[in-house]
From TrEMBL:
GO terms for cellular component: nuclear DNA-directed RNA polymerase complex; RNA polymerase I complex; RNA polymerase III complex. It is found in: Nucleus. GO terms for biological process: DNA-templated transcription. SMART domains: RPOLD (SM00662). InterPro entries: DNA-dir_RNA_pol_30-40kDasu_CS, DNA-dir_RNA_pol_insert, DNA-dir_RNA_pol_RpoA/D/Rpb3, RBP11-like, RNAP_Rpo3/Rpb3/RPAC1, RNAPI/III_AC40, RNApol_insert_sf, Rpo3/RPB3_RNA_Pol_subunit. The keyword Signal does not apply. GO terms for molecular function: DNA binding; DNA-directed RNA polymerase activity; protein dimerization activity. This is DNA-directed RNA polymerases I and III subunit RPAC1. SUPFAM superfamilies: Insert subdomain of RNA polymerase alpha subunit, RBP11-like subunits of RNA polymerase. Keywords: DNA-directed RNA polymerase, Nucleus, Transcription. Transmembrane segments: none annotated. It comes from Rhizopus oryzae. Pfam families: RNA_pol_A_bac (PF01000). The lineage of its organism: Eukaryota, Fungi, Fungi incertae sedis, Mucoromycota, Mucoromycotina. Belongs to the archaeal Rpo3/eukaryotic RPB3 RNA polymerase subunit family.
Length: 286
């Protein structure tokens, strides 16, 4: 939030982390009362609401990128930590193994199953209590049953396991939801299921089979990462690239190549090739 009472050079130090050729300075926050003489920089809720903005930059089914404008980086980091550790989801917590003759040990399979993201609204479920048992109000039940066999129609020379065997791979799509209580009616329009169908759980060969019952329960990421709703949550400071003096000719091309494609472009100004900053946001990608 800009304070017009401060001189321009002081405002720069207050609102920017400055990176020069051989040093970084103004990296510490100074947005607190009486940091600058005769300037009341105390928190004002009305000023905060007027200046704070959220701008969505990219939004897809599985990711979102947005700008938080008018807050300190520490608040952005707090949002990041909340998304990682405080937002509840449903995840596989209990695995009851009836049969597992695959080469993967029971406890390893259970761990792999727990990391499969489950598409279910956690608001529709209660947390499991220490002295309580599973009910239709706090638990989702999935069944996994797969047995590998030779494919009688496969060629004797076939080497592709997908063609040579039947059920040679166990995928997340093989988790079958078994509704309990009134769950079938409650979730008729959007039945609980794995987010992705093609997650490989195990590979089987003829004679091997897996049969398990899986219980999904509500939790948060601070208890275990399997309940974290985000694979990655990060924040960064939006870069601002200032060209102090014109960069022209071959120097402009060389300067452009110092950045990720799209950050700097070379334009023609009065017949002279000149470097211009067009999209500094890309400078922090990847």
């Amino acid at each position: 939030m800009t304070n017009s009472k401060l001189p321009e050079n002081v405002e720069l130090l207050r609102t920017r982390v400055v990176i020069e050729k051989d040093r970084v300075y103004s990296a510490s926050g100074s947005d607190y009362p009486h940091q600058y003489p005769a300037i009341d920089n105390s928190f004002n809720l009305e000023e905060f609401k007027k200046n704070f903005k959220v701008k969505i930059q990219r939004l897809s089914k599985h990711s979102v990128e947005f700008d938080l404008i008018g807050i300190d980086a520490s608040i952005a980091n707090a949002f990041r930590r909340i998304m990682i550790a405080e937002v509840p989801t449903m995840a596989i917590e209990k695995v009851y193994v009836m049969n597992n003759t695959s080469i993967i040990q029971d406890e390893v399979v259970a761990h792999r199953l727990g990391l499969i993201p489950i598409l279910a609204d956690p608001k529709e479920f209660d947390y499991m209590t220490e002295d309580g048992g599973p009910t239709d109000l706090n638990t989702l039940v999935f069944r996994l049953k797969k047995k590998c066999e030779f494919n009688p129609e496969a060629s004797p020379d076939e080497t592709d396991p997908h063609k040579k065997y039947i059920n040679s791979y166990v995928y997340s799509k093989d988790l079958i939801w078994e509704p309990k209580g009134n769950q079938e009616e409650k979730f008729a329009n959007n039945p609980p299921r794995p987010v992705h169908d093609d997650i490989v759980i195990a590979k089987l060969r003829p004679g091997q089979e897996m049969e398990m019952e899986l219980h999904c329960q509500k939790g948060v990421g601070r208890e275990h990462a399997k309940w974290s709703p985000v694979a990655t949550a990060s924040y960064r400071l939006l870069p601002e690239i200032t060209i102090l003096e014109p960069i022209t000719g071959e120097d402009a091309e060389e300067f452009k190549n110092c950045f990720v494609e799209g950050v700097v472009e070379v334009v023609n100004e009065n017949g002279v090739k000149t470097a211009k900053v067009v999209n500094p946001r890309k400078d922090t990608f990847d």
